[in-house]
Amino acid sequence: MAFLVLLSTISFTMEKHYCGDTLIDVAIFSKVDSCCDMDATAITAVEKKSCCKEEIAVVKGQDNLKKATFDDLSFDQQVFLTTLYYSYLNLFEGLPEQVIPHKGYSPPNLVTDIQVLDQVFII
């Protein structure tokens, strides 16, 4: 949702530079490189028309966003959202706390291995 809002509100400018009828440079976030000298065009602007041409395309994003709060909703919508939120929270139950009855009990120390002493082995 945030990505959609970001894409709908972004705006940028695309500049194209032509020399004659050929496209020389396209820039979106920077200035275009010109093939004409600025000093030469300033001097000869009166004498002849320059062959360079620049096009600027502006893509404007949405800049009037409406921020809605819970109080702006109607009473029916508030009841619906409240019950949806409450039922969603109660949908999942937590795991019960496991009681380990012999948690503090430590096993006795083995003096001898009884299975080896009685020669009883499970096969």
From TrEMBL:
InterPro entries: DUF8199, HYC_CC_PP
Name used for this protein in its record: Uncharacterized protein
Source organism per UniProt: Gelidibacter gilvus
